[in-house]
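[step 3/7] fold_predict: job queued, chain A
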Amino acid sequence: QVQLVESGGGSVQAGGSLRLSCAASGRTFSRYTMGWFRQAPGKEREFVAAISWNGGRLTYVDSVKGRFIISRDNTKNMVYLQMNSLKPEDTAIYYCAADTGIYGTLRYDQNEYDYWGQGTQVTVSS
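[step 4/7] structure written:
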């Protein structure tokens, strides 16, 4: 079992920054691909970013490239999403997710992720 708990959401004006954190339980966390997804009101949940087990490979959805940075600290069982130059269209509930395929590839499909956090709200006002 893996438990994920997100934090760091909030309200910010356009152009501002937020840093989301995801605390994970489990001794094998360091072997998992981790991802961030988001769901805006009235829309389907979408992929935002993913990071490989050792942090060596990263991938982002085009709409956040150059603005968001995903990172992880395996010594602390933590994953982060640094969000800069925020836009109103970034408003959503942000979810942390774990793909427990050991040393797996980066995946964009939410169905490939096995465990999810409860989500944290990010609201960006214009």
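[step 5/7] annotate
The longest strand covers residues 92-99.
The chain has a mean pLDDT of 95.
exit 0
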